[in-house]
Amino acid sequence: MKLYQLHSQQALPISKQQAWEFLSDPTNLKVITPERMGFHILSGTDRAMFPGQIIQYKVSPFPGYTTKWVTEITHVNEGNYFVDEQRFGPYDLWHHKHFIKEIDEGVIMEDIIDYKIPFGILGQLAHPIIVKKQLMEIFKFREQKLKELFGTIPNIPNQLQLKSF
Fold it and tell me: InterPro entries this protein is in (predicted)?
């Protein structure tokens, strides 16, 4: 069983409260997801984020293929972090931690995603060609979109890396 981890950090010149309000609102996921992904929320965003919240959406990760994705918010520490886990969707495992850390100039937004792709050895062969490439593109898009929305903090580089175990 091969596990992968994506780690992203981005500095934003906003308050911790502003960062939390934006990142903890599931409807903003559509804002920071590339349009070509066909992201559409079906249910679960009618209340403020809470542990046990189920969010359902449709996404088209590849042309001609649309899938339903169901996540559960499993942990919430107001203003600091939350965790979502896939309950149904394209991955065998999807565990996504979102952290907000206050710094002098604003905040560091950090994402750590541990995931496993299906289809055994075939999935592992497809990972560098399709999955890794797509995840890196999605997070580069997010970085650019957040930069457009909130600006940047000079001299604090953003980080994006993917490793396997």
Answer: START-like_dom_sf
